[in-house]
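Quick log. Single chain, no ligands specified.
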Amino acid sequence: MTKTLRPAVVLFAGLTLLVGVVYPIAMTGIGKVAFADKAEGSLVVRDGKTVGSSLIGQAFSSPQYFWSRPSATGPMPNNAVNSSGANFGATNPAQVDAVKGRIDALKAADPTNTAMIPVDLVTASGSGLDPEISLAAAYYQLPRIARERKMGVDQVRAMIDQLAEHPVMGLFGEPRVNVLALNLALDKK
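-> predicted structure:
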């Protein structure tokens, strides 16, 4: 029995040390060197104060700010601890009511805007943590932001275009803009 138990215990201890200690420490070290910003949470600091993360969405509700994509995380929006979607189908009454409510909020914030509302402003993502919105969603909100901040529409459009992120290698992903970066740039003006 000792002949078979001893190698099993030694193998178990060795693999536990290798996979449970050495590998995580090595990967953390490589991550901190190769991807320092992302490994530390991509925290955004302004005036010595952490104001958010460029990887996790934030809820903005003031009309002078660009609004993020809705979040379905609970118990509060954009809760990184509870990343999840609502899992509602397109015809689910709760989903239909949520979308109608979001449409009503957008129309109330900018009653003169008659443009079609981009889908990412009224539907939550699978993770509920999207930090970006489509360029269409940013352009939809542009008249409200310009009016609230007493800026020219062209000036706000230029900020959107300057901060826009384009598909990786022109193929992967959609054109988008980080809402936190955009709102911080607006505050800086």
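The chain has two domains: 1-40, 43-188.
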